[in-house]
Each structure stands twice: as structure tokens, then as C-alpha cells.
Design goal:
The complex is a heterodimer of chains A (328) and B (331). Chain A contains 15 helices and no strands. The model of chain A has no long low-confidence stretch (mean pLDDT 81). With 328 residues, chain A is mainly alpha-helical. With 331 residues, chain B is mainly alpha-helical. Chain B contains 16 helices and no strands. Classes of the chains: A mainly alpha (328), B mainly alpha (331).
Amino acid sequence: MRFVLRRIGFFVVTLWVALTLNFALPRLMPGNPAQVAIANHRGVIPPGALKALEAQFGLDNHQNIVLQYLKYLVDVVTGKWGVSLTTQPGNSVAHVVLGALPWTVGLVGVTTVLAFILGTGIGIVSAWRRGGPLDSILPPLFVIITVVPYFFLGLVLILIFGVKLHWLPYFFTYNYTLTPGFNWTFIGNVLEHAILPGFTLLITTIGTWILTMRNNMITTLAEDYVRMARAKGLPGWRIMLDYTARNAILPNLTGFAMSLGFVVGGAILIEEVFNYQGLGWLLLQAVNNDDYPLEQALFLLITVAVLVAILLSDIATAVLDPRTRGSR
Amino acid sequence: MATVGVTGGPGADQTQPAGYAGLAGGLPSSGGGITGARALRRMARAIFVNGKATTGAALLLIFIFIGLFPGLIAHDNPNAEIYKSALGPSAVHWLGTTGLGQDIFAQVIYGARPVLLIAFGAGLGATIIAMLIGVAAAYLGGAWDGVLNLITDVLLVIPAFPLLIVIASYLHGASTGVMILVVTVVSWSYTARQLRAQALSLRNRDFLEAARVRGERPIYIIVVEILPTMTSLLVASFLTNALYAVLFSSSLQFIGLGNPSVISWGTMLYWAENGEAFESGQLLWIIVPGLCIVALGAAFALLNYAFDEIGNPALRPVRSMRKDKRVKPAR
């Protein structure tokens, strides 16, 4: 219980730091970026929204910085995130974010689950067949994938499967000549558009799962109870799955809980390359258009998702593995 | 220690390349008693023995040479928009020209310097900050440790790449120097945590006790007694940080958050994507700078993996397992 309270305390502190960064960064940066952005948007958005924006970034000079800060904290907590400037002028930030959320959660969420299942499986087998073909191919392959920037991998896949072979679409979330609706044509089209970005994401994330699982398996394979199982003459697959993998999977499981938090902000560059209209793409749209309210809200959302996931994964570890409770 | 899964668990921040945990998780643990000079000499020798290390070092040296003397290799001004646009490769333009009529080969060659500056600048910067904070936290202990550790942990869990994007967006076209600064500030925390753990494990060793009994001042103990034992970990941290500096800065430049008039591989990709290089068939404009990023990253990663194997024999046994039949798991 004390452990959980400490983790919640850490959660609150980190959240506060993220909020404060959001507040302080535009005020600390040279050249007053918020003022420039507002000047650029004058006339494009309603005057009322402009006023609200000036207040949000402390440009109306009616309040001192402490009061601004307190008002900002209250606004964020009560869900007043301001209006988005450019993507859909005049719309509330919350509205814009909610529109993009399902695309990211669908694409990155499904890919994360797939990467976890496949990666863990491959990790189990490659550790079990130590020195076998799988185990000798993976590490060098992993070195290469580690150093390929996500966006470049995406570009290369676009070149091969999109531009050259014409196998798959690589632009937008669906073919925009179609009307969105709950029918097979549309759903199929959406899935088709998700294949390339999903595959890019899968390649880039699967390595960590493989490597972690493999290394844990190797450590666990050296345990006495595994030797005991061998001595009893149990079939290989039972030793592999029931004795070794079951005990080795814990770090991967807690890592999985955590990686779900990274879903929200996970694929910024991949969404950008494929023009996939999720949260990451939205963040870069906001950045390119100096849409600071939207940008701040997205950064906060990404951070909160990660924090919640870390909190849950810490608690899950404490519940699943009694040893971690004792050491605190 | 307070956090469980935070230290780059599986599927950690996907804006960091997926190998982060794997790469950093197996950093060499330096043997306690080996002094800095000896560790460095051992590493230098190992570079020639280990194939991965030789490849990595050779790649890195080539890039450093290009970065130092681009004028010796490329004769065109990389910025000059003086040729016909979108030419294919020829004897005059080895890699063709960009959509704006610049020589791609010259751009690739001149693009090495800013990337290397960022890699070495931010790599060194992050490692030094991490060293100061991590070792200070471990050595000072008590409330200092609590505060420094909290700062490290908080920075560790705030998603690095989104934070970089937000900071860079307020800066409007970060120059090379600013880029080094920003990447450094965002990326030191993981190393600090590792160095703190390493320093903590040393705290009660006899040779430190002896130094204390001799009456040495804390600063002497930290600089002369503790830091040299961490040489291999520091080198590994530098390599990892340099690799991430390359990937982070190239990504930022690619999405247009660098200074677009500075010629570097990331900005080349930015212009190529904006110029619809694929659609117009100018593949080299995208492929070559991309491969350069991969090659430079591979140089750092290969060196790191090699030191990993040198410093941590436990990760090496794949080869010896095949030779040694006795250890082979019975099926």
C-alpha cells in the first residue's frame, strides 16, 4: 500500500511538471512565440476566440504571472483547453482531439498488441533454440532496425509497396472519395490504408519484445526448476511454455501495460509520413501552424497516457510479483 | 529505487527507436577495479579484434573525415540552385540534382558536418550532465539523492520526442547549436539513472573507504577514484546518446523543425518530401541521405554492441555454446 501511494505521489509530481512546462515554455522562449502566432491569426478566427487566446498566453497583461498560472491550472483540470486555431478554426481543442483519437488508438493499439504477441512468441522460440538460425539472424537484424529512423523506414516501404508495386495505399486514413459509413467497402478500405503504417510500426517495435523475452528466457532456463523438469523427462514444449516462458514473461507483461500508454503519442512520425490523420499527425499540424493550444493539449494528453500506463504497470508488477513488494 | 518499469521497458516510447531498452539494457558493467586508462587501452585493442567494432570505427572515421573536409570531396556549393532541376545521376552529378537544382552529392557530403556536430555535442553533453547528476546523487546521498533522483525520474517518464517537438516548435528553425542544447536537455536522464546505480554499487567498496580514511576530499574521491571505474559505462553511454542525438535531430529536421537552410541529411529529407521526390521519381534524393543517417547510426550502434560484448561476457556465449556441446540444452 505504501508503495502504491508513493507511485501515486510520483504521478502527481510528474503531471505537475508537465503542466508547468506547458505553461512556462511559451513564456520563456525568445521572441514571444504566442504573440507572433496570435498576430498571424488575427482576422482568421473570431475576435472572441482571439481574446481568450491572449488571456491564455498572458498577453492581455491584466494579471500577474502567479494568478495566470493558477488560472491555467484550474482551466486545464476543468477541461477548458481553449480553441484550436487552424486545423478547424474556432473548434474547441477537445473536439479536434477527440476526432483524431480513434484513428491513433486503432492503428497503434492493434499494432502494439500484435507486436507484443508476435515478439514474445519469437523471443521464446529463439531462446529455446539457442544458437539456432532464428537466434543467429535476429541480433544483427536488430542492430540495423534500431538505427533506421521510423520515418525513413516508412518512406522506403511507401516507395516499394506504394509507388513502385502499387499494392497498397499510403495516403490518408481511407479513400476520401468514399463516404464514411458502417459497410464492408468502407471498413475494408480503412483496413487497407492501415496496413503499411501498421507494418512499419510493427517492424520498429517488435525487436524490443523479442530481445527482452529472449534474454529473460535465457536467464530462466538456467534455473534449477527447469533442470528439474528436464530430469523428470517432461516434453520439451511443456518445459518451454509452462516452466520457462511463464516465469520469464513478467517483465514483458508489465512492459506491455506500459507500452499501451505510449499508444497515444507513439507513432508521430509514422502518422506524418503516411498522412494518417491521428493524434501524432495532428500534433505536427498544430506545430506547423503555430496552433499552440492544440499542441499543448496533445502534449499533455500524451504525457498523461504514459503516466497512467506507468502507474498501472507498477501496480500490476507489485500485484503479480510479490518479490517487488518486499524490496520497497 | 522508486520506479519499476520506467527504465526503458519493452515497447518504451516509440518515438525512441525500439531498441532503446535492448541497446542500453546490456551496457557493459565496468569491472570495479579497472582504472580508466587501462579500460580505454583495452577498448582500443578490442576495436581491432572485434569485427563489429572495426566496422563501426571505420564508418565513423570516414564520416568524421567527410565532416572535417567536405570541400576535398565535393566540388559543388551544396546550396547553389544553379543546375537543371531533377537531373538523374551522371558523371557531372553523381547522384543527380534536387528538385531545386542543387547537386545531391554535394549536399550529402556537406550534410555530414551538422549531424556529426549534433551527435558529438549532444552525446557528450548528455553524458556529462548525467555523470554530474548521477554520481552526485549517489555520492551525496540523503536529501540530495532524493531531489536529484526525482528530477531524473520525472524527466525520464515525460515522453522525450513530443517534448522535443513542443520545445522546437517555439524556437522556429533551431540552428545546430540550439539543436544540440535541446537534445541534450531532453536526453540525459536515462544515463544519469544508470550512472547513479553504478556509483551506488561502489559506495561501500574498500578502495573508497581507504580514500576516505586517508582524508581525501569528496571532489578528489569522485574524480580520481569513482569516475575512472566507470570509463566503459561512460563510453557506452556516450555512444548511445550520440546515436539518439542523430535520430532525434534528423527526425526534427525531417518534420521541418530544424533550420531548413542548414544543409544536413534531415533537412534534405524534409525538402525531398516537400518536393514530392518519390512521385517525380527522384529516389536518390530520399534514399541517400536516409542511408547516411542509418550508416552513421549503425557506426555508433556497432561500437556500442562491440563494447557490450567486451565488457559483458555473459552476452557472448552464442558462439561458444555451439562449440561446447556439454552446455547445449538437452531436448
